[in-house]
Amino acid sequence: MEDTICAISTAKGVGAISIIRISGKDAFNIIKKIYKGKDLDKVLSNTINYGYIYDKDELIDEVLVSILKAPKTYTMEDIVEINSHGGINTTNRILELVLEHGARLAEPGEFTKRAFLNGRIDLTKAEAVNDLINAKSNLARRVALNNIKGDLYNKIKALRNDIGKLMANIEVNIDYPEYEDIEVITNEVLKPELDKVKEEINKILKNTKNAKLINNGINIALIGRPNTGKSSILNKFLDEEKAIVTEIPGTTRDIVEGSMTLDGFELNFIDTAGIRETSDVVEKIGVEKSKKAIDSADIVIVVLNNSEKLTKEDEELINLIPENKRIIFVNKSDLPNKLEIKDNYIIGNTVNYDGIDNLKKAIKEKLNLDNIMLNDMTYMSNIREIDLLKKALDSIESALNNLYSMPIDMIEIDITNAWNYLGEITGEVYQDELLDILFSNFCVGK
Amino acid sequence: MYDVIVVGGGHAGCEAANISAKLRMKTLLLTMNKKNIADMPCNPSIGGVAKGIIVREIDALGGLMGIVADKSHFQIKMLNNSKGPAVRSLRCQADKRVYPKVMLEYLESNPNLEIKEGLVEDLIVEDNVVKGVILSDNTKITSKTVILTTGTYLKASILVGSTKKDEGPHGEGRSNTLSDKLREYGLEIIRLKTGTPPRIAKDSIDFSKLKEELGDDTYYTFSHDIKPVYDINNQQKCYLLYTNENTHQIIRDNLTKSAMYGGYVTGTGPRYCPSIEDKIVRFSDKERHQLFLEPESIYYDEWYLQGFSTSMPTDVQEKLVHSLEGLEHAKITKYAYAIEYDAINPLQMYPSLENKIINNLFTAGQINGTSGYEEAAGQGLIAGINAVQKILNNEPLILKRNEAYIGVLIDDLVTKGIKDPYRMLTSRAEFRLILRHDNADLRLRDIAYKYHTISSEQYKRLQDKKDNIIKLEEEIKNNKLVMNEDIKQDFIDNNYSIPLKNLTYEELLKRPEITFKFLNKYHEFNYPEDVLEQVEILTKYEGYINKAIKESDKLKKIEEKEIPLDIDYSKIKNLASEARQKLSEIRPKTIAQASRISGVNPSDITILSIYLKKEYNND
């Protein structure tokens, strides 16, 4: 138990506070690097300390930090608990920051395991802990399999294969230095390959949908003709959650109108140029503008008026939105029905806010949020993958930075690390894997 | 009665017998033929990538291979010099006549060691403890421990085309019953295969058509204790040549005639050492394969055709050799052959190399499923040391994966087992940056001294080296190169970027291009060459080396977590069934070893740790 572990120890990011727990010998060193406030060296054990979490100069959150010194703690190691203001976004930023400063994400049940191994927990609980670990890791495996299948999994696998082949070639150069017919991996060969890997990992990181949802929140666009009640719906969402309505720049070039938290996920309502305007704007938005809004949103809520007939523009708009991000909300259910629509829809009104809960449910279903938030395991495995991808990226960057100043045996350490991290994601690492690649690709031997 | 009987006089046997006798044990080395002691039946070289580092480790631990190689080679080369310190490795072309002679001299100079001829066909085993050996003439020789280093001689068969002869290399006899007896005692016997290429008469080779391969022009030794004894300007050349389409066609036309492809071979061959027919079949799109011609000795005129091992019949071998450029009129003095032999399943050994089924029985070398002189010698040395520890009732010497290639080798054998003959490669060592050629003594001589396998002079040499390293490290930290116009010009002339301020020598050395050789002009670093080399490497690669040390330190704690020998894995609830089966079979010694077994997952390790804590109160 040499290393320091961390995890979000509150089950969900909902509610006012979530707790990031760090345990291990570096726990205090790590918090000191990211916390500004009291001098933590001087505070007593079992105290709660007010302050701020910073990522370099950027303020992340206002927090309370509990300092619990070994051995009288749950794990009998030094423990730090960061109480943040909740919201998956902030909590994750802090967790990532802790990871960046040297902690590793706890395995399922690892705090309990440490508590046990360090003699904190009664021996009679041993079997229960066993069962727990077994159950949780099975779940984790299942969840991991579910989460990373399809495209992403294949992409990482392909990327890892490419790195593996490159490594095998380097290894052959090293273990069989006198085989002249084998391509020698020089820096000139290596650099473009590593650049490619770096770019790919960056792309995956950006495209990882769950990563994006967790890191950046969910972008929601409300579109529809004027007077369908978009603003009322928006206000209902925001008021209800007492979210701050400000014009802060979002992650895209769009302007975020306001944010709220739904089951720990941040919902960002993005401006689709016209939502709040009362004049006839929809016609002016034009197809291009709508397309752009649709592209940058994770969810597009099309608001229609129950008491008006479906127009050609409405239909065009609906068809423009891919089914997997489209929710149709038929507003003004309190007025007589004139609308006929064949697609699935949710009906409600903004007079007594009927149907708004159904709308939230629809958002969750569309993005499969319940699956992500099903339990802490699922969530963890997402963070875990992102963490591993980032580590792989760091390793590749280290290789690139040192390429021209270090010999190949050093560079290969970085490449191997990247390969191993990606292997942890795909779960396909096995003993002597590299040797198998090596001997199936190169003809060497006396 | 002997303390230790070593069966077999190959590279494993020599090291085992030598170290046991050196540790003042009454030792008997049994060989079928004294003339074949330390024989090199295959390639005429010692060392090579990773293997050269094993030789350095053998030397650091008090073994013989390094110093004997130093005294018997006619060419030496530092491989991978440009690829970085972690993978640098020494290889020499050892004279096949001189090497065994020098080795025998060393062995015979040891008064505790007796060498006798005899063929061992059985062991004396009582209550699962070995008590001695039984020779083919039924002579019984008793001992406290036995080390089997039988090489390829257990039920050996030589295959050339469809002919199969039941004999060992050089037409020697073979042990006909020992492996059957071992099976009766409960050991699992496996069948392996290896091969060797043809030998060519020197005067029949047209060297003008071949490309020369020279030795290095820098002095090197494997040994940490002697100065180079060879003439650097008088090294023998090796030669490079290639197969061609004609060669490949002959192979394709005759494929079914080869012992391998004709189905005459039952043993598993090494994949890193494919026969020429394997190469052509598996890599059919390659236009040519590289071969080397290496002299076997300066005292006779036979050359070794490296890369051309085959089990084709002799007439096809003639055609094949004659298809090579430069060998059109070559005379084959010895035909290539494949050899099959019995070995034990290495999973049945402890990391001490003692057998799990028969106590006090140790094994080393090809009988454990490895290949290569160096791999054999490394195991022989450890088996020898541990047979002695067993007699003295001491803890065995088990080298860790972050301490030595020999540690990696043995851990791999007893943890993963083998599918084909095992050869050491740098890629097998996850901490190869720590396991370097240059620091074998720093890694291992403290351990060697503890086990009394090196002398106090050797130990003092190590302490002096360590002191010097510390002194030099201080010196480069505390002194700066004060720049002036001349020095600036020197930097410019060398195409080095000019420091913007006065830097310490340590800071300068961190730059990839700057060496002590350059800095010596401005500050006299009066230290032995190996000290300068060490500090230069430690300074230049500090970041990576520290990372590697940090990684390897993580292992330390779980390496120290021992698993009791009497553990009953069937009693541990929740272990995955594959893990349970593997753990029961391999019976790892530590949690770290358990975690390296394929099929044992991290959750199994946790469950195991918790069980140990509960049942044994083991931290």
Detailed description of the structure:
The complex is a heterodimer of chains A (446) and B (619). By secondary structure, chain A is an alpha/beta fold. Chain A is 48% helix and 17% strand. Chain A is built from 15 helices and 14 strands. Chain A has a seven-stranded mixed beta sheet with strand order 3-4-5-6-2-1-7. In chain A, strands 9-10-11-8-12-13-14 form a seven-stranded mixed beta sheet, with helices on both faces. With 619 residues, chain B is an alpha+beta fold. Chain B folds into four domains: 2-192 and 340-450, FAD/NAD(P)-binding domain (3-Layer(bba) Sandwich), CATH 3.50.50; 199-339, Elongation Factor Tu (Ef-tu), domain 3, CATH 2.40.30; 457-529, Arc Repressor Mutant, subunit A; 561-616, DNA polymerase, domain 1, CATH 1.10.150. In chain B, β8 (129-135) and β9 form a beta hairpin. In chain B, α2 packs parallel to α11 (440-450). The longest helix of chain B has 23 residues, at 456-478. Classes of the chains: A alpha/beta (446), B alpha+beta (619).
Attribute tags:
heterodimer, A: 446 residues, alpha/beta, Gyrase A, domain 2, Rossmann fold, 2 domains, seven-stranded mixed sheet, 14 strands, 48% helix, B: 619 residues, alpha+beta, FAD/NAD(P)-binding domain, Elongation Factor Tu (Ef-tu), domain 3, Arc Repressor Mutant, subunit A, 4 domains, six-stranded antiparallel sheet, 20 helices, 22 strands, 18% strand
